[in-house]
Amino acid sequence: METALLRRFTRSRLASTTCPCLLRSTFIPFNNTSFRSSRHVTPSQLISRSSYSTAPAPKTQLPTTPHPRKRPLIALGIETSCDDTCAAIVTSDRQILSEVLRTQHHLHEPMGGIVPKLAHHAHMRNLPSVVQEAIQSAGLGERGIQAIDVIAVTRGPGLAHCLGVGLNAAKTLAAALNKPLIGVHHMEAHALTARLTTRDPDLPTQDASSSESSVPIGSDPYPSFPFLTLLVSGGHTMLLVAHSVDRYTTLATTLDDSIGEAFDKTARELDIPWLPGRAGGPGASLEEFAKGSTDPERYLNRLPIPLSLRSGKSEMKFSFAGLKSAVTRIVNQEKAGSPIGEMDENKRQDLAAGFQNCAVTHLCQKVEQALVDCHEQGMDISSLVISGGVGRNATLRSRMDEICSRFEHGGAIATDKMSSKEKKKLKRGSSLNATAASKETTTRAARPVRVICPPPKLCTDNAVMIAWTGLERYQQGLTDPYDIDIVPKWPLDMLGTGIVPE
């Protein structure tokens, strides 16, 4: 039995170098209605080619015989970058066939945060049954697991030992099944999730009697490139331009703590219990706790809005350490002044609301600055995609809607909604002439810059986004050898350069 398995594994390793499913000629457009190449915005129109180096060409020439497909592509995604064990099966026509997730909140809440060793051992226990359940519940038909075309897995960034659990499982599955392996950048997956969950507004409205799968989605998913992406999670606070699959430019990142970390530590400082379940955790609990505030402005004069002074307002950077420290000082002062040495619940709710307001305002200021800068540079930004765990925050979403409503896809800006200072700033160096800038309104374009947020359950870490990104990369011919390793620290800018950090 063992000899037969070894022979099968060896054959699959050898066959992977000439596997016909890796041919570019086999890739199908996402709408699966006709065999034509997907349209893309040429990155060289927006950034210099010298910014990137081309990945090395494969050593082996693949056969060129066309191999057309009659069904959508199917990808299995595996995600183990932090504290959730996830597997999902997704198709190229936007169907989520199955999704299984095991949370670890019960392990980490008593510790006040994520403990890498606990997360690693939990992944080891959970992943086999999670993958098995995802495959069994996907309804893959007679072919079963052989119907899967692509194995996608989070390669980085994340906790090293946790990443290793998922990558080793994915490599074993891909080799045994003789399927392509795709190592996915976790943050690219967050950025591209909206292209799975969002329909193009230019398409006709779906008829009530038709199913979602019958709605045409075009040859390229929506939002179209280029778009801004705000990645806000426990490990990242980044603002990027997504030029195309595999190519991104970072506009701003955090100098110290991520916004998710600031939310988590503030929740711990205020003794807020975690909300249970997939949409739970400390960040979600702080948002819910702040809703009970009766005086949300009580502490605003004692809480700083980071980098909002004149010297730092134009800097494209994020910072949350100072805001987090201010919360700690207020809590200590309130406890010291209390006869029982505790801060009452009403004050804690007001402080939670004040912290949330300052953190969100900081994000909004930098996103608005980025939109103005992109417009001045002639970059036609179609959308703002908010992703990551903090992307579930309703206050953040509504405030970003207000910001983006002032900007138009196609270059026009609704100046009637802007202050006089904003108008002057836009006028300097912009393509608008003096006459147009002096008017109360510009000619409005057909579509404003849209704020796009994936469904809340897909904002946190999940395997659906990994499987979908695997499909997007596969259709661009971006597959990986079976000997790839984890990349715990991996700047998103490095995608497309052919360089992977050690």
UniProtKB/TrEMBL annotation:
GO molecular function, one term: tRNA N(6)-L-threonylcarbamoyladenine synthase activity
Major enzyme class: transferase
Span list, region Disordered: 46-70, 418-441
Gene3D superfamilies (UniProt xref): 3.30.420.40
GO biological process: mitochondrial tRNA threonylcarbamoyladenosine modification
One of the record's GO cellular component terms: mitochondrion
Subcellular location: Mitochondrion
UniProt main location, coarse: mitochondrion
One Pfam family here: TsaD
Keywords: Acyltransferase, Metal-binding, Mitochondrion, Transferase, tRNA processing
Record InterPro entries: ATPase_NBD, Gcp-like_dom, KAE1/TsaD, Peptidase_M22_CS, TsaD
Biased composition (Polar residues): 432-441
Domain Gcp-like, residue spans: 95-203, 224-406
Protein EC: 2.3.1.234
Cofactor annotation comment: Binds 1 divalent metal cation per subunit.
Role noted for this protein: Required for the formation of a threonylcarbamoyl group on adenosine at position 37 (t(6)A37) in mitochondrial tRNAs that read codons beginning with adenine. Probably involved in the transfer of the threonylcarbamoyl moiety of threonylcarbamoyl-AMP (TC-AMP) to the N6 group of A37. Involved in mitochondrial genome maintenance.
Entry-linked HAMAP family: TsaD
Quaternary structure (record): Homodimer.
Listed PANTHER family: TRNA N6-ADENOSINE THREONYLCARBAMOYLTRANSFERASE, TRNA N6-ADENOSINE THREONYLCARBAMOYLTRANSFERASE, MITOCHONDRIAL
Name of the protein in its database record: N(6)-L-threonylcarbamoyladenine synthase
